[in-house]
Fold this protein.
Amino acid sequence: MRLIFMGPPGAGKGTQAARLLSAFGVCHISTGDMFRAAVKAGTPLGLQAQRHMSAGELVPDAVTIGLVRERLKQPDAQRGFLLDGFPRTVPQAEALAAALEADGVALDGVLVLEVPDAYIVERIVGRRTDPETGTIYHVRFDPPPAAIAARVVQRKDDAEEVVRERLAAYHAQTAPIVPIYEARGLVRRVDGLGTPDEVTARIQAVLA
Ligand code: AMP
């Protein structure tokens, strides 16, 4: 299965992708996670990405497209993938289409997790991640267990002023991709409001 997960920052893409992976046995390709790993490792890619990420801007297309092209060539991506946070611009969507065509494979669907802007800031500002497992929590809606509460961290780009920039980037640069996939009959919209379990059930119903 080859799927794209779309939706504004904080829609629940990362949480839902992690829940679906075991069910479908495909690899999770999150460009945000790849950039964060590069930042942590202090590589030249990480240094370049960090400047854009901390401002809430997108990393330039040439960098992002090169990274994903390489990732899609890895053996684990041949069985299928769940793309989370890519493509985020029209040129990225075009580059993905060209890469898949060259491999003779096609996308099965584009899942758009819908969450109105009014909910996004509260969702993101309360988001915390367990650095040891990568599990995502929310201080109010899904608090981390007491045993790990002291070690969870907040992403730097989850500060409120950065979130507003990221949301603006989503509407300006990423939302215009949806009609492109819609014209190909690939889009399924899923209501991203409610508990993580409720959203997972909706996604499973759509995928079934
Ligand atoms: P995410 O974890 O998906 O919210 O991504 C965090 C940040 O990484 C974004 O705000 C961007 O700065 C950068 N990023 C992730 N994916 C992409 C992409 N496909 N294109 C450009 N920048 C990206």
About this structure: The chain has one domain: 2-26+80-207. The beta strands are 2-6, 27-30, 81-84, 109-114, 127-129, 136-138, 187-191.
